[in-house]
Design a protein that fits this description.
By secondary structure, this protein is mostly helical. The chain has one domain. It is built from seven helices and no strands. The protein has helices spanning about 5-20, 35-75, 80-90, 100-115, 120-130, 140-160, 170-195. Helix 3 (about 80-90) crosses helix 4. The longest helix has about 40 residues, at about 35-75. The chain is elongated and about 65 Å long.
């Protein structure tokens, strides 16, 4: 399967962040300068932001595609059906599918995504459950790696320097390369199958 454009943009951006912020050679002893530790923390903060943007962009694209198909041919795809159910359950408004109902449901879901702030398991489920990707379909390695990254990001973003634990650039890079990126390719396959009958 060729790499989808949005995933390729993410990979390219993460490669650039790695080149700009992580040491060109990793220490065999795990000893790094304070600057290298700070750059590694900056790397994690920016990777977190890039992943959050990726997840939200992919969800928006799926919903936009489902809306366009409805407008073009009147077909209520599985994704659009799920968004309608998500909206109706939240608003307790059951009714027939109509352009007005579709507009309200999509606006509600997109507003919901706009309020997302993170990539922890609860954030991923908030984004993807309404589209039809269940908890079981989110890879456990991806969820664990995103939770770990979020926890570290929170420590760095919301705590004083004195409370920060040191981070190992190689460990952090490897977590992203081994536990997140391969699973995003699997998630992309799942996205492709969401609207198949």
């Amino acid at each position: 399967m060729p790499t989808p454009k949005r995933l390729q943009r993410l990979i390219t951006r993460l490669d650039k962040l790695e080149a700009h912020l992580l040491p060109t050679a990793f220490s065999l002893t795990g000893r790094y300068t304070l600057r290298q530790h700070d750059y590694t923390k900056a790397f994690l903060l920016l990777v977190h932001a890039e992943l959050e943007s990726y997840f939200e962009d992919r969800a928006r694209k799926l919903v936009t595609k489902a809306e366009a198909r409805y407008r073009r041919s009147g077909i209520c795809t599985p994704v659009l059906s799920r968004i309608l159910v998500f909206h109706n359950a939240a608003k307790d408004e059951l009714g027939p599918v109509s352009p007005k109902a579709v507009n309200k449901a999509i606006k509600y879901y997109l507003d919901h995504i706009d309020k997302n702030h993170g990539i922890k398991e609860k954030n991923l489920l908030t984004i993807f459950l309404p589209l039809g990707i269940s908890h079981a379909e989110l890879d456990a390695r991806l969820v664990a790696a995103c939770n770990q990254l979020s926890q570290k990001r929170g420590q760095f973003a919301h705590a004083s320097l004195k409370t920060h634990q040191q981070v190992d650039p190689k460990t952090e890079r490897d977590n992203i390369k081994r536990n997140i990126l391969p699973e995003l390719r699997n998630l992309e396959r799942r996205f492709r199958n969401l609207d198949l009958p």
